[in-house]
Specification:
Chain lengths: ~500, ~180
């Protein structure tokens, strides 16, 4: 059923005479249901003719004013081809070919399209024209009565994309296909706005042009009708060419993998240790885990984070330390829990420096639990301590009885170059000693998160008070440190 | 890391040995024997200490008091540093005074920075208990912590002596005194 009524005739006639395509005519007449837009172009043109009861020749004559040119159905003043060839099946197919070639795995997609900003200017001009015409019939036309170009475009293209790729369109999908249109010919169409509304166009550092869609829309809302009409032809001029496709891109939102890691090497940094382009120590915890994930998920890059971290020379024992890896733009995202288990096994087989457990996919929100652990939860450690004075078993027993010892730690000298100078109050909840010999004993401690253990043992030039040395009245040093547990109960433990 | 029970000296490298390089400046400000030892951490931070040969560390010397008020307008205790980039720190040149040590025998000694950089902190523990300076001059008895400019972190040691060079200076002094 043809969607236009008697009421729309004048406007439709007017718009057609300015070279507007049928679909845009529908938009300006407020046709807000999908079906008419999806009909084939030629059919729409025929129906429109019939509706306007004009002969085909007359139609051509009208469109030939101004200067006669060979009629190209694609040529129109308003949507520069967007609601014509660029929403037809052939174009959609072309985009889908690119999507398929990109090698992404997806079960739904969100389609985003970007039109050149100067299009808003042309829309504005067309609206003023239609408003004026409707005014003659004592009818009003608000901006909101017009169907937006993007909306109509999506009504037509969404089912086509869905059909071609075999997946539904879902606004919440992580997989995004984006198409950007440009129309170089009319780029300067919006420049006059900068002269009239300069405050709308503030140069932003990372934008190439100040004429962004947002800025142009803002200016169009501000500008007075008379001022606009003085500067911009209404109806808009016919462009010589249709717009071009600037880019067709696909990207998948990040996915997150979490787990817990054990570190068995005393010679492995958390992150790659590179100074002046030279790698100081081979490999790192993050690379040993992430490199495998990067490959399997076919991701562009990763971001590794963990619930705190340990020094190069410190082992992480017990249940391990929680970590999460963000995989950026992954091409493969669907894995069964069996496949994840196998991936975990692969990581564990490839290195004896680290081991991973409880590997699983998690949501972005879940990462919060991990960082919570860093600041709030307790940790337990085991240290091998050396003393300058000879000690007996009885000399260390008193440490077992000390509970919730408050200590003040100035920023350790070894990190002072990159951390602010401050005093941190921390609590050593409990200690347990194990005599080794006259100059050595093992100390297990349970401490508040953020405690510098090494400094608690040797005192850091007296800048951590009290410390083991001051408590025992000896000079103490730490020979070995292990993390026994990180008391965070995330991610959820998995069987096996 | 076993230590032989008979020997007094431990085999274990100390905290200072592990993280720091010792640099020396003898006869600071031309004052005979007022040797300073700069402990330079691998992260470029410098801890200013007195060398073993400094008069204050010789037996028989008692420290009456230590003062960080180096002039009417400047006290090193007022040094306030904020943020990761340590803004607000007092800037020190090589000859900048850090503190004054007053001994019971009436002698007065000034400790100088020896390196250029931002003053991070001075040791307040030695204010309350000056004997720490004499008991543990290389650790708890440090004088100050200085952060040199990143660009200058290598060049600051150009005017200083290595451990070996310092030991040679000591030997020369001993020989000079014995011959004279």
């Amino acid at each position: 059923m043809f969607p236009l009524t008697e009421e729309n005739k004048h406007v439709a006639q007017l718009l057609l005479s300015t070279g507007t395509c049928p679909r845009c005519i529908f938009r300006f007449c407020g046709v807000d249901f999908h079906a008419p837009y999806k009909l084939p172009y030629k059919e729409l043109l025929n129906e429109l003719q019939k509706f306007l009861e004009t002969e085909k020749d007359e139609l051509i004559l009208e469109v030939m004013n101004p200067p006669p040119k060979k009629i190209r159905l694609q040529e129109l003043a308003d949507s520069i081809g967007i609601l014509q060839e660029f929403c037809e099946k052939d174009f959609v197919k072309k985009v889908c070919q690119k999507v398929e070639a990109s090698g992404f795995e997806f079960t739904s997609l969100v389609f985003s399209v970007s039109f050149p900003p100067q299009l808003s200017v042309r829309e504005h001009a067309a609206w003023l024209l239609v408003k004026q015409e409707m005014g003659k019939q004592s009818l009003s036309l608000g901006r909101d009565d017009i169907v937006q170009l993007k909306e109509a475009y999506k009504w037509i293209t969404h089912p086509l994309f869905s059909e071609e790729l075999g997946v539904p369109i879902d606004g919440k999908s992580l997989f995004e296909v984006s198409v950007v249109f440009a129309h170089p010919e009319t780029v300067e169409d919006c420049h006059f706005l900068a002269a009239i509304c300069p405050d709308c166009f503030k140069p932003a550092k990372n934008k190439q042009s100040v004429f962004t869609r947002m800025a142009v829309m803002k200016a169009l809302n501000k500008i007075k009708e008379e001022d606009f009409l003085k500067q911009f032809p209404c109806p808009p001029n016919s462009p010589k060419a249709v717009c071009t496709v600037l880019e067709i891109e696909c990207a998948h939102g990040a996915v997150f993998v979490a787990g817990r890691y054990n570190k068995y090497s005393r010679n492995l940094p958390q992150t790659p240790w590179i100074i002046d382009g030279e790698r100081k120590l081979e490999s790192s915890v993050e690379e040993l885990i992430s490199d495998h994930l990067l490959a399997v998920f076919k991701a562009e890059s990763f971001n590794f984070s963990s619930s705190g971290r340990e020094d190069v020379d410190v082992r992480t024992l017990g249940n391990g330390r929680p970590f999460a890896i963000e995989l950026v733009n992954p091409h493969r995202v669907h894995f069964t829990s069996q496949e994840i288990k196998e991936l975990q096994q692969k990581i564990n087989n490839s290195s004896n420096k680290i081991q991973v457990r409880d590997l699983q996919l998690v949501t972005r929100e879940a990462i919060g639990h991990m960082k919570e652990g860093e600041e709030e939860k307790t940790k337990t450690y085991s240290a091998l301590i050396w003393t300058d004075k000879a000690i007996q078993k009885k000399d260390i027993e008193f440490l077992n009885d000390i509970k919730d010892l408050k200590i003040d730690q100035k920023t350790p000298l070894r990190v002072l170059h990159r951390r602010p100078l401050a005093v941190r109050a921390r609590v050593i909840h409990s200690m347990e000693t194990q005599y080794v010999d006259e100059h050595h004993f093992r100390l297990r401690l349970k401490t508040q998160a953020g405690t510098y253990i090494k400094e608690f043992v040797h005192g850091d030039f007296g800048r951590t008070k009290p410390n083991i040395g001051s408590l025992m009245n000896v000079t103490a040093d730490i020979l070995e440190l292990d993390v026994e547990s990180v008391d965070v109960d995330w991610p959820p433990a998995l069987d096996d | 890391m076993a230590t032989e029970p008979e020997t007094a000296e431990p085999v274990v490298p100390s905290l200072v040995d592990r993280y720091f390089t010792r640099w020396y400046k003898p006869d600071v400000k031309g004052k005979f024997c007022e040797d300073h030892c700069i402990l330079q951490h691998s992260n470029r931070i410098c801890v200013i200490t007195l060398a073993e040969s400094h008069p204050v560390l010789q037996s028989g010397k008692t420290i009456k008091s230590i003062s960080y008020q180096i002039s009417t307008n400047c006290s090193r205790l007022q040094n306030k540093v904020s943020g990761k980039f340590k803004r607000g720190a007092q800037f020190l040149t090589e000859l900048a005074p850090l503190c004054k040590i007053y001994c019971s025998d009436g002698e007065e000694y000034t400790v100088s920075s020896c390196v250029r950089g931002r003053l991070m902190e001075v040791n307040e523990n030695i204010l309350h208990k000056p004997s720490i300076l004499q008991e543990k001059p290389s650790t708890e008895g440090y004088i100050a912590v200085v952060l040199p400019k990143f660009e200058e972190s290598k060049s600051i040691t150009e005017g200083l002596l290595t451990q070996k060079q310092y030991e040679e200076v000591i030997v020369k002094r001993i020989n000079a005194t014995t011959t004279s």
